[in-house]
Design a protein that fits this description.
mainly beta, 2 domains, two-stranded parallel ribbon, single chain, nine-stranded parallel β-sheet
Length: 208
């Protein structure tokens, strides 16, 4: 039997450190629709069996480094529809079991190199409707299991050469409605398993 805890659509703005340390068998935690603006590094201590965590629609603007470090079994993490602006390389430390990540509909304008380095089991990354402008080299480094990447409806005008080269399993790439006027073929290098590539309505006039 799955052990679930629902706190969604309340007025929660603060969760004290170690608050969940005595419910270590918890598997699903719903916190969506509250007022949690910051995820602190000790907020989810000892939740080593947690499989799903939902934090969407909170006005969330800050994820401290190592915020999810104890969530070693987590498979799904939803951070969509918040106010996040940046993803750092220590944000998702230890999430080696994560398979699906939603960071769509935030205000993210920067993915730092190695932002997702620990997410070796990730198969789906939803990052659409943000403010991304440049996809830098190593932004998606080590996402060896990723099959679907959704980056549509951003402001992307540049994909640096070989920035997607570390995605050997990628099958679906969605880049619709960006500002990609020029496509460098090296930007899509090494995507040998790619089946679907969407570049509709991106103002492209030149492929080099």
């Amino acid at each position: 039997m799955t052990i679930l805890l629902y706190y969604r659509s309340n007025e929660i703005h603060t969760i004290q450190p170690h608050c969940f340390q005595h419910v270590t068998s918890l598997e699903w935690l719903h916190l969506e629709g509250n007022n949690i603006e910051v995820v602190h590094s000790q907020m989810f201590t000892n939740l080593t069996h947690l499989l799903r965590l939902y934090l969407e629609q909170n006005g969330l603007h800050t994820l401290e480094n190592n915020s999810f470090v104890d969530l070693v079994s987590l498979q799904r993490l939803s951070l969509k529809m918040n106010l996040l602006k940046t993803i750092y390389c220590e944000t998702f430390t230890n999430l080696y079991s994560l398979e699906q990540l939603w960071i769509d509909r935030n205000e993210i304008d920067m993915l730092h190199p190695f932002s997702f380095y620990h997410l070796t089991s990730l198969t789906q990354l939803h990052a659409y409707r943000n403010n991304l402008q440049v996809i830098k080299a190593n932004a998606f480094a080590n996402l060896i299991s990723l099959r679907s990447l959704e980056l549509h409806e951003n402001d992307i005008h540049t994909i640096e050469p070989y920035s997607l080269a570390s995605l050997p399993s990628l099958e679906h790439l969605e880049l619709t409605r960006n500002d990609l006027q020029v496509i460098d073929v090296h930007a899509l290098a090494n995507l040998t398993n790619l089946q679907d590539l969407y570049l509709d309505r991106s103002w492209i006039y030149f492929i080099q």
